[in-house]
UniProtKB/TrEMBL annotation:
Segments forming a coiled coil: none
Keyword list, A-Z: Glycoprotein, Signal
Family affiliation: Belongs to the GILT family.
Keyword Signal appears in the UniProt entry: yes
Cleaved signal peptide residues: 1-21
GO molecular function, one term: oxidoreductase activity, acting on a sulfur group of donors, disulfide as acceptor
Highest taxon of source: Eukaryota
A Pfam family that the UniProt record links to this protein: GILT
Transmembrane segments: none
Name of the protein described by the UniProt record: Gamma interferon inducible lysosomal thiol reductase
Amino acid sequence: MMTRLSVQLIVSTVIVPLVFGQNLLEIYKAMMNDQAGRAKTPPINIEFFGESLCPDTTRYFRNHIMPVWNALHASTLINVTYHPFGLAECRRNDGVIRCTCQHGPAECQLNMLQACVISALEFPQLYMPIVNCMQGKSSFSSAIDDCIVNFRPRPDLDENFMTRCAQSQLGAKLMMQHGYRQREVASDLDWVPWILVNGRRSQAAENQLKTIVCGFSEPSRYEYCKTTEGLIF
Ligand SMILES: *[C@@H]1O[C@H](CO)[C@@H](O)[C@H](O)[C@H]1NC(C)=O
């Protein structure tokens, strides 16, 4: 039987070198650690849970998370983590994981694809634009074509490997891991998008993310925080 440890092992020994070339990832990790080391204050941790075919999650990506993320991710102000799971369920029977999703099998496929991309690229700085692109796609093949083949956000992200990952037990395992995390930190989730700000659920963050994030910073520090851009009421 697979344990979580061996799942992580598969991810780090199989996916990462295939997608990246180990060196590039090591360089990137060193860069991120350096950046974190230089930050005077810890970042605002925004961890959120959603579903690939949920219109509310899609709106959240487009109207709230991405504008804030685009404006501020290069600073050390925010640390965004996404989990494609929500009101899904994964069970392991005779060693085989089967998942069911609120919006049916197509949603599970797309959640798994997002989970594969998150696992392969590891850092939100790398995976967010791709996961956002895949969010709400009407078909698996358009997610692959529009968000990897034609988008080419990273030349080293391979569409065939991502397809195999998403359509295999590896994708199911990765999605299940997001479910484990959800059970751990958002066990009472009954709605998506479900947003944790510094570990606590914030309903206000569902429609006032910018206000909340900017409220943590000195008012004049970030250009983005001085404007009303991205405020949606
Ligand atoms: C970023 O968020 C993730 C998930 O919540 C957490 O594991 C990680 O420690 C955070 N990084 C920092 C620098 O706080």
